[in-house]
Amino acid sequence: MAQTKAVLTCALTGVLTDPSQHPVPVTPEQLAQEARRARDAGAAVVHVHFRNQEPGLGRLPTWDPLVAEATCQAILAEVPDLIINMSTGVVGPDLSGPLACLERVKPPLAALNAGSLNYLKLRSNHDWAWPPMLFDNPVEKIEAFEKVMKALGVVPECECFDTGIVRSAPMSAKRGMVPNPPHLSLVMGVDSGMPNRPAWLPLLLAEMLPCTHWQVIGIGREEVWPLHRACAELGGDLRTGLEDTFYLPDGTKATSNGQLVEALATIATEAGRAIASPAEARRILGLRAEG
What we know:
By secondary structure, this protein is α/β, with parallel strands linked by helices. It has one domain (5-285): Alpha-Beta Barrel (TIM Barrel). The chain is 35% helix and 17% strand. It has helices spanning 28-41, 65-78, 96-105, 139-152, 163-174, 200-205, 224-234, 257-270, 278-285; strands at 5-6, 8-11, 45-48, 83-86, 109-113, 117-119, 133-135, 155-160, 183-188, 213-218, 237-240, 274-275. Strand 4, helix 3 and strand 5 form a beta-alpha-beta unit. Helix 2 (65-78) packs parallel to helix 3. The longest helix has 14 residues, at 28-41. It is globular.
């Protein structure tokens, strides 16, 4: 049965989106302002990436724990009840940066990339859009992250970019690597991963353990909105934000995260779903109490 209230997450800024080209927040103050806009529009969770604070380098990520702390403190000073979901995605075996940020911030929720993917995209002339990259998340890397998250009381949100990763998540849960049932995010729209196709959702749900908590992360343009609608109708939770898309359902470009969350909330309510407050979202997601 579909859960009564939908938890809305806003992914505020992303990893590498250039603030000189797109309206993404970079500084702790900007992220806090966008978090307020997202909360006012209905978001209970903000997914946070940390950005380099040196002049002219805001398009780049950072794993400086002091920047992570300043960012999260600014968000919570502006919107104390919001739930912070920290990114941990990193290429390669060196986990010291994200682990240091986890230990400094101790967020209630954090992304855990649950499997590897060849991260690919072609241009219209069939050249690579970027050099082919392996987003490597082997089992030992997942276990290392989960061990620290468990010790800190952080709930992992397993990000699944492909069907094989969705099918592997129950194995990780049964082995005690992640909670059982797990929290899954279906990342759809990456060119070399799962596509933005609503018809895939029932097939993916059939591969999950009973009572799995799940949401959709739709990457793309206005084509992500039918996917969000199908997710809401099937009982999943919903995420949008300037990390995932710049486009509103009518094809116009968003100028803030608040506009995107407002559109997502409209879709959820049209599907018969009430919107969860941050306090309700904490109970739904099984997170520790504030503070």
